[in-house]
Amino acid sequence: MTRASVVGTGMTTFGVHESSLPELFARAALSAYDDAGVDPADIDAFYFGNAMGGQTENDTHLAPTLATEVGLAGVPAQRFEDACATSANAFKNAVQAVEAGIHDTILVGGVERCTPETGKGTGEMTRIFASASHRQYEQPTGLTFPGVFALLTKRHMHEYGTTEEQLAHVAVKNHGNGTHNPRAHFGSETTVEEVLDSPIVADPFHLMDCCPFSDGAAAVVVTSDDSAASFDGPVDVTGVGHATDLVPLGLKPTLHATQAARDAATQAYEQAGVTADEIDFAEVHDCFTGAEVLASEAIGFFEDGQGGPAAEAGRTALDGDRPINPSGGLKAKGHPIGATGVAQIVELTEQLRGEAGDRQLDDPQRGLAHNLGGDAGTTVISIMEART
Amino acid sequence: MSANMDETVSVGYEAWADALRSDRILGVSCSDCGATYGTPISVCHDCGSRNLESVDLPTEGTLYSVTRVEVPPTGFEGPYHVGIVQVGAARVTARIETDADDAPPEIDDSVVFSGVMETDDGLPAPVFTTETS
Ligand SMILES: [Zn+2]
Prior knowledge:
The structure holds two protein chains of two kinds. By secondary structure, chain A is α/β, with parallel strands linked by helices.
């Protein structure tokens, strides 16, 4: 059943941007207006995500500032923060609001700057990202975010024999997909050897297993099922699941299960009335190569333990039977934290409209987005379908 | 009310940090369902009970997972190992050390609680050392 529809998308390139957060966001928002064919007067509310602007740029209370920038001052505007799952949560709340009849048409978006344009170097940004782990029971050990996903992935390797080569194949595939995405941070291919020869960040992850620090913004216009028919090219949202898991890591019963993703996927599949087998492709949260392998199992694309071999065998490639991250994923497209969740919705919409250019999949009918926050403490799973 | 609040504090973070500085690792155990957690929480995740009591966790355990951090945050000097240690029924996140000529720590290695480190801003963390066989 349709819960809401996406009727317009906009996105900046992901990479390095000098623009301020409001001006960067405006580029995405204005192109979403244009794509939907709406004016600010047609928008009833603004749901927005930014994870770390307070720490990175001393910039908070951003919702009304950004609303003002894009002609929405006066409408209810709210900011969401759930680490890397920030704007997927904004999207979830917007879907619920139009479904419940609270608002009819909503601008949903996210923006973040993470590159040295913020004035912060690698050490400082690494510390800011680590603020999403437990302040008392994890941060004092010097745990970093590559470290968090390294701990998850090392356990997965131990349980199932997943190899560093299999992880490297995820990076190779996503870099390849990124070469077909004009908005991707990285536009170049890589090889398994290049990944394995790059320096270690947190073992088993080499530098080339990690997504980059990126600046960027993404926005979509969400409207009710009833209103969607009056727009060109609506794409329907049929399920949005959202779950949390125990924090810190030591409290999670099975570290590599990423249980919140499994719970959120179960909800989303149930709402949409479909199974994993009926999903044609997915955009998943590959902040690190190991995270994509874990996600591909948590959403039910592969049996537990088969995510690594499937990546190596090419099953998740654009021409594979279970395509994952046609956009290039966080790994190649980039990861401006608060923009990532909505950027996944942008990719789902473009693929389902058949407007994804050189990375277009063969007539996909149904796609899934998996946006994970923190130490797998939050996951939001969205399912979208082409309108027939 | 104040008695209740005191009770909460007795199994909370301050107690955990004080114990750590006295070479003890405190977890909490649920008086109602028996669940054990490696770090204090105020409500039992398994049964919803507030009757959580401090328990001393074993000081010997095995590595459940471990990584070598080579790109540290500001305030830390790498490289170093961070791991999740299985101690009895619970797990704690800790700094993992080895003797200089030892092999790097690996999952399932036996480790012993060997002390406490402290960040620049005064937060303690447990340190475990791999046992030489
Ligand atoms: Zn209990």
